[in-house]
Amino acid sequence: NKNSRFTPYVPFPEAQEKSETLDTEEYISLYESANNMKDNVMGHIQNFIGRNRGNERRDEIKKTTILEKVLGAIPSLKQWSDELFEEILLEFERSKDVRRASTDMGVQILKFRSAIRKFVENVWNDRIDRCKRDTLKQAYVEGGREAVEKTLKASFLEFSQEYMSDADKERFNSLKQLSDLSFPAEWHPAARTMQRKIICHVGPTNSGKTYNALKCLETANSGLYCGPLRLLAHEVFERFNNKGIPCNLVTGEERRELEGVVVPLTSSTIEMANLQRQVDVAVIDEIQMISDSQRGWAWTQALFGLQAKEIHLCGEASAVPLVRTICESINEEVEVREYQRLSKLVINENSLNGDLKKIEKGDCVVTFSRKAIFSLKHEIEEATGLRCAVAYGGLPPETRAQQAKLFNDPESGFDVLVASDAVGMGLNLNIKRVVFETVKKYDGVSVKYVPVPQIKQIGGRAGRFGTINPVGYVTALEPMDLRYVHQAMAAPIKNLEMAGLQPTMEMVELFAHQLPDVKEFSSLLEKFEDLARVDGQYFLCNFHSQKLVANSIEHIPMTIPERFSFVTGPVNTSDVRLMKNIQKFAMMHNQSRPCKIDEVVKLPAKVPHNDDMLSEMESIHRTLMLYLWLSYRFQETFVDVEKARELKLRCENTIHESLQTLKIPRKRPRTTTKDIRAISKLEEKNKTERNKSFDNNKSFTQQSSLIYSKNRERVNPHFRQKPLRAFN
Question: Transmembrane ranges (predicted)?
Fold first, then answer.
């Protein structure tokens, strides 16, 4: 109940004085982070039970392992403390990666040892401006140990200049200048000569904000739409042309240009926004994605670089303060137009209590795993007799649109939609009720709670103004998940703080010329990351995927611009088939011979009837999209464009046909009491084995403890006052 009042669990000792009674909205605002949510929920449970049962029960309350398993087995961050800080610093001091980066910059190995020790000591004593404890603590909260280590590494390379020779110091400063991203506004001088008007259309899902922005674009003499998805770019392209307003389409994989008429408007994906053309009106959709760790740079680039008299930004209100700050830096004012939801949204008080028989026509059941989607589809169809359409990120956008059309059509026979978070953006859906099958998802590293803004966006898809479902409902399959949904939907907006940046190809090429000895492109990108300097309100977008692609084609000779084009292509690095195909494409380009699509792709003769065959078709579609993307960059190599488009269309139709008949009789993985007991037994067994190992290797452990304690003493002179802990 959002009106209830309680004393929240406070994770950091120094914040205890702030732990006054808060209402639920304030509590969620403070602790809505996906990384910290479980810790705070568990802490609150402990405090609540402790206050009611008395101090004598506190020892039992601490034993929450099984309860944590029930809540989702979410690996969480340790709380920030002096002990954790020491641990991070000692690992940093021993890091081979830091030593290699330093010696590559010209620091001799003996000097490196002195430099790293002095640096660690200075960081511990708060003498390094960029590594103040508060700064590192904030980095830890936002990005874990990796974020802290990145901050330390960048600061150490700066610190180690005094241990370099004059020649190496000069080269280091040159590299720093080339990787300085502190002033992104200066990258777009043509836009700086214009006095642009910035208008923010902000509001929740189904509030009409994008509709009103597109109305302004519709009446413009010239204009540009920039969307986050090909699906949205297609939708705007078709919408304008169906109204008799000529509009071109430009995406990374496709160009549709009308001939014989004057075309005032262009609909494009955000990465393909034309920054060289002057227009009257531009629309940038989903502006909150400016803070996305992978693609945020494209929104920042469009906001700085579009040569438009009027720029309309559509999205969440959380982006407004950041947009204001960015625009103030270039002397541009921001007008904010706020919108309210057009249809009513009701968060149900009761869940479905795990009963899939309660699924009804018009429901959209949301889960966050591809396998779970097909399992759910089968279980719902078996339990209710209702047929299910599906939508998830791995499907081609065109197929997702076809599945959405089936769901929206009351005569199609498909009454339920089973979807992933892909349902939150890019699809027009007539959903009566959103049902969260789970509120946790795997993010590539660990299982975490779905962030609050995403819960709001997905839940907001229920109900649509002017349709047969004017009132929307939101619930969850399980009672425990519904509690989180209630808290998330009631949580106040958390403002965005930083915008993403990415270097241009020219910057990377100039940087590479200063490092002729660095042959591997992934190492080059890593060094750019290490040395890049960004202003406080910006961050460097993640190079992880680009480095994986770079490693896969490293053995193929290419120029820096060619390699940059390949590594920035639309590649899902978890798709093994696609990673092999990009190697084939790179090899053919290197050999300067035309690449026929039939040499790489062959469509199966049969419609997929199981999960493996469907996965193969999805991978083939991704290969075709990559081929088309490359065909616009290397026209002399990727010449089979029409054939690739034909295969792409056939592939999409085959996948769509498969989804209508595919049945995968597989139960969803569910945590049972039996599973919890088995986990507990395994933990006890592992603990016993660790104790045996400790006894058998006692002398080695004592020696390790002595070494560890000496290192800690050097970092923290007060360590002697603390009990010695075994380094086991």
Answer: none
Residue 314 is classified by DSSP as E
Q: Which residues of 257-362 form beta strands (DSSP E)?
A: 265-269, 278-284, 307-315, 334-338, 345-347
CA separation for the pair 496, 479 (Å, rounded): 31
How many C-beta atoms lie closer than 10 Å to residue 204's C-beta? 18
Specify the pLDDT at position 717.
Answer: 44
pLDDT tens across 421-447, in order? 888 887 888 999 999 999 998 876 678
Pairing of strands 363-366, 433-436: parallel
Please give the backbone phi and psi of residue 452, each rounded to the nearest 5 degrees, phi first.
-55, -45
Residue 607 has, within 13 A of its CA and on its CB side, a CA count of 12
Contacts of 156-162 with CB under 8 Å at 24 or more apart are 156/92, 156/98, 156/102, 156/115, 156/116, 156/119, 157/101, 157/102, 157/105, 157/530, 157/531, 158/130, 159/115, 159/119, 159/122, 159/128, 160/102, 160/105, 160/107, 160/112, 160/115, 160/119, 162/115
Residue carrying the six token digits 């393909």? 272
The pLDDT score that the predictor gives to residue 694 is: 41
In the block, tokens 């919408």 appear at 239
Q: Where do we find the tokens 């597109």?
A: 214
* pLDDT at residue 667 in the model: 60
Which pLDDT score, from 0 to 100, does residue 665 have?
A: 64
**Helical ranges in 536-637 per DSSP H:** 544-552, 560-567, 576-590, 611-631
**Which residue type sits at 51?**
R
Beta partners for residue 418, in sequence order: 365, 390
Q: Which residues contact 674 (CB under 8 A, 6 or more apart)?
A: none
State how far the Cα of 210 lies from the Cα of 454, in Å rounded to an integer: 18
Secondary structure of residue 393 in the 3-state scheme: coil
The helix (run of H) or strand (run of E) holding residue 73 is none
Distance CA 124, CA 129 (A): 12
Closest CA to 352 of 436, 420, 292: 436
Q: Which ranges of 179-295 does DSSP label H, i.e. alpha helix?
A: 189-192, 209-218, 230-242
- Distance in angstroms (rounded) separating the CA atoms of residues 489 and 495: 16
Rounded Cα distance between 136 and 155, Å, is 12
Residue of 338, 373, 352, 342 lying closest to 472 (CA atoms):
342
pLDDT for res 689: 58
Radius of gyration of the chain (CA): 28
Q: What's the confidence (pLDDT) of residue 443?
A: 73
Which of 409, 443, 204, 466 is closest to 417 using CA atoms?
409
pTM value > 0.90: no
- For residue 61, what is the enclosing H or E element? helix 58-61
pLDDT of residue 477: 95
Q: What phi, psi does 706 have (nearest 5°)?
A: -65, -45
Beta-bridge partners for 315: 202
Q: How far apart are CA 582 and CA 588, in angstroms?
A: 10
Contact of 554 with 522, CB cutoff 8 Å: yes
pLDDT for the residue 184: 93
Q: Can you tell me the distance from the alpha carbon of 421 to that of 457, in angstroms, rounded to the nearest whole number?
A: 9
Sign of CA dihedral 559, 503, 102, 172: positive
Residue matched to tokens 């303060």: 321
**Which residues in the chain come in under a pLDDT of 70?**
1-78, 444-445, 665-728
Integer CA distances (angstroms), 179 to 268, 525, 704, in order: 29, 11, 41
pLDDT, tens only, 103-157: 888 888 888 999 999 999 999 999 998 889 888 988 888 778 888 898 899 899 9
